[in-house]
């Protein structure tokens, strides 16, 4: 089935998989292959359905939750993507990529509470990479800027000194990184 899928016979591969799954309904590997088959055919709703069905039986599979979260995010179904990424974070609480993904979805959803939560996830990604996650550094700065704008629109002064310090530290870290990466340009 895998070879057929690679050679362009996705319909044949799917048929073979369905036949094998009839005999081995609990086979995780075959069920994951069905998801891959649907994705290769561009059948995103089919891949989502197959992954959802798979996760009903194998709910501890964080890779499957991650994949489902990505599919939902691609479809702009951010609430569902957020749920999936929360499941991933339960399995990988110290994974910077998981925190960054969570932050990206929260930031995209918008709203003050989501932006604050996004900032915390980006800060975690920065901490877990010892300040080396460039995307998280930029994202923290964007979150703080957005929160300041929201406060300003309400006629309030932004008073979250911790957030301001975090944004300043992120800015400093980015400047250091660019200076070290581009020493020849700065001479």
Question: Could you explain the architecture of this structure?
Answer:
By secondary structure, this protein is mainly alpha-helical. The chain folds into two domains: 1-93, Serine Threonine Protein Phosphatase 5, Tetratricopeptide repeat, CATH 1.25.40; 95-187, no CATH class. Helices cover 80% and strands 0% of the residues. Helix 4 (44-57) runs antiparallel to helix 5. The longest helix has 21 residues, at 161-181. The protein is elongated. Keywords: Endoplasmic reticulum, Membrane, Repeat, TPR repeat. InterPro entries: EMC2-like (IPR039856), TPR-like_helical_dom_sf (IPR011990), TPR_EMC2 (IPR055217), TPR_rpt (IPR019734). Residues 9-105 form the EMC2 TPR-like domain.
Please supply descriptive tags for the structure shown above:
single chain; 187 residues; mainly alpha; Serine Threonine Protein Phosphatase 5, Tetratricopeptide repeat; 2 domains; 11 helices; 0% strand; elongated
The percentage of residues in β strands lies in under 5%
Largest sheet, strands/sense/barrel: none
Overall 3D shape: elongated
Compressed to H and E, one letter per element, the order equals: HHHHHHHHHHH
Number of domains: 2
Cα distance, first to last residue?
58 Å
Total strand count, please? 0
The structure class reads: mainly alpha
Helix percent band: over 70%
Short synopsis of the structure:
Keywords: Endoplasmic reticulum, Membrane, Repeat, TPR repeat. By secondary structure, the protein is mainly alpha-helical. The protein contains eleven helices and no strands.
């Amino acid at each position: 089935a895998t070879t057929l899928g690679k050679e362009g016979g996705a319909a044949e591969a799917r048929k073979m998989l369905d036949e094998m799954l009839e005999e081995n309904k609990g086979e995780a590997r075959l069920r994951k292959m069905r998801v891959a088959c649907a994705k290769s055919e561009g059948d995103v709703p089919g891949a989502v359905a197959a992954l959802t069905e798979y996760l009903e039986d194998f709910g501890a599979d964080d890779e499957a939750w991650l994949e489902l979260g990505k599919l939902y995010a691609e479809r702009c179904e951010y609430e569902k993507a957020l749920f999936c990424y929360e499941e991933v974070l339960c399995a990988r609480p110290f994974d910077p990529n998981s925190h960054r993904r969570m932050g990206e979805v929260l930031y995209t959803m918008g709203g003050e509470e989501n932006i604050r939560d996004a900032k915390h996830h980006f800060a975690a990604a920065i901490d877990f990479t010892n300040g080396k996650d460039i995307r998280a550094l930029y994202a923290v700065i964007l979150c703080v800027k957005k929160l300041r704008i929201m406060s300003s629109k309400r006629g309030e002064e932004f008073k979250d000194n911790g957030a301001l310090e975090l944004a300043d530290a992120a800015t400093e870290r980015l400047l250091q990184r660019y200076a070290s990466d581009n020493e020849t340009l700065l001479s």
